[in-house]
Specification:
By secondary structure, the chain is an alpha+beta fold. The chain contains eleven helices and four strands, in the order H-H-H-H-E-E-H-H-H-H-E-E-H-H-H. The longest helix has about 70 residues. The N terminus is likely disordered.
Length: about 450
């Protein structure tokens, strides 16, 4: 590392608290796992879809049903010339029926549809996991960047106030003009505005993080100012784009969605197909007598039946054809959605890759700019004391120094976030990446 880089790292470290740290990025991620309501929605959505597969499988398996009746009948009966008599008849019967679908194409397609729907739901859940990682990291980085921006703003305000005091003393001694005093007052007011804006930005970022983790930790580990951010691996944009078009979680969900739509077409067309079921039943019955026959004898019987039940649809009012047309249209829509997802993934990969590469270049340039600005501040202060530079020159140098420092802090966090977005676009972002990023914090 160059001498200049070491100096700037030391300067940045001065703006990062080195006392005690609370939760780091991984701690906040685990809080999000437990508390993020958006992720909870995705979790239970997956669970609901997974329950559809055994439902469709059940339509292919045997069904067994049992029924029974037990009653007592009282009736007044009269036969021929006999006197009316009261008869009491106790009767019962029960039956057991088994139905096994043999040929039901619609049910087969429904099972296939539910199976690929589960795959689609799993891809959507992966997408939700990656989205939670990105949202958590972005909110975490946003809070840290805002807190460090406040420190920079406070340092800027202090420098402007000190220079204003020097200008006021110079004016009292007759060596500085009122213009320099007024300009100093303007810079102090502007620095106060920067401080208020930084605090407002922090409040917003804290609210965004709180929406994910519910309760924001008091202290958060910050990015180590001395660490160099890694370059993309591989450092080839096209490789990332190709990976994104094939493995992006949204692309995989859309690809499964196309398979679901194709199965739906088959299911709709199967409405025209004949069905064949195996039906077997067994039953017993008993009666203690009769209320309608002169002879009043008990009877008992049983029945056994095995057969095939065949059904062929002939006409359903055109509804089946309409459902086929609807399913075909949905399939074409799913194909278009897949192409859209692939293009979107490729675009996200390009933008994220450019964000990382350009961010690293910006960091290098801003480190040099911070070093140059710091030297300019020192030179202007020395020149001001020697009467070479005016108070305005010093104020301009101070303002430039703090602006560049603020930009450097923000670019470091933004570049780190773009690196995570690049992996998400490629479909490979997971908690292991957070572990590696977390190692950059202290």
């Amino acid at each position: 590392m160059s001498k200049g880089r070491l100096i700037i790292c030391a300067l940045l470290t001065a703006y990062v608290s080195t006392t005690a740290y609370g939760e780091d990025l991984l701690d906040v991620y685990h809080l999000a796992l437990r508390n993020d309501p958006k992720f909870e929605v995705a979790r239970y959505s997956l669970k609901a879809i997974q329950e559809k597969q055994p439902q469709s499988l059940a339509a292919l398996l045997p069904t067994v049903s049992a029924s029974g009746v037990n009653n007592l009948t009282r009736a007044q009966s009269q036969f021929s010339t006999s006197q009316p008599t009261n008869r009491y008849v106790h009767a019962w019967n029960w039956s057991l029926q088994l139905t096994q679908p043999l040929i039901r194409m619609q049910n087969l397609y429904a099972y296939k549809e539910s199976s690929v729907a589960v795959e689609q739901a799993q891809a959507q859940f992966t997408l939700a996991e990656q989205d939670m990682i990105l949202r958590t990291a972005e909110a975490y980085f946003g809070v840290l960047a805002s807190r460090e921006s406040i420190k920079v703003a406070e340092s800027e305000l202090l420098a402007m106030e000190e220079q204003l005091m020097l200008a006021q003393r110079g004016y009292e001694k007759g060596v500085a003009s009122m213009i320099e005093v007024r300009d100093g007052q303007s810079r102090v007011a502007l620095a106060k505005s920067h401080r208020v804006a930084a605090q407002n930005e922090l409040d917003i970022k804290l609210a965004e993080l709180g929406k994910i983790v519910d309760e924001v930790p008091t202290r958060l580990a910050a990015l180590d100012a001395a660490v160099a951010l890694p370059s993309p691996e591989p450092n080839d944009q096209q490789a990332w784009v190709s990976q994104a078009r094939d493995h992006n979680a949204a692309v995989q969900a859309a690809r499964s969605g196309l398979l679901v739509a194709e199965a739906s077409v088959g299911k709709a067309r199967a409405e025209h197909a004949p069905t064949l079921d195996l039906v077997a039943s067994y039953g017993e019955n008993y009666s203690s007598g009769s209320t309608t026959m002169p002879s009043d004898f008990a009877s008992r019987g049983q029945s056994k039946q095995v057969g095939l039940q065949f059904n062929i649809p002939l006409f359903a009012g055109g509804g089946s054809n309409a459902r086929v047309g609807e399913a075909v249209a949905v399939k074409y829509r799913a194909g278009a959605e897949l192409e859209l997802a692939q293009r979107q993934a490729a675009t996200e990969a390009k933008l994220a890759f450019a964000g990382v590469v350009n961010g690293l270049s910006q960091i290098t340039a801003l480190i040099a700019a911070v070093e140059a600005s710091r030297s300019a501040v020192e030179g202007n202060h020395a020149g001001y004391k020697a009467g070479i530079y005016s108070n305005i020159d010093v104020l301009n140098a101070e303002q430039q120094y703090h602006t560049v420092k603020r930009d450097l802090l923000k670019v470091r966090y933004e570049t780190l976030l773009q690196a995570l977005k690049l992996k998400a676009a490629a479909g490979i972002l997971n908690v292991d990446d957070l572990v590696r990023v977390n190692a950059l914090f202290k």
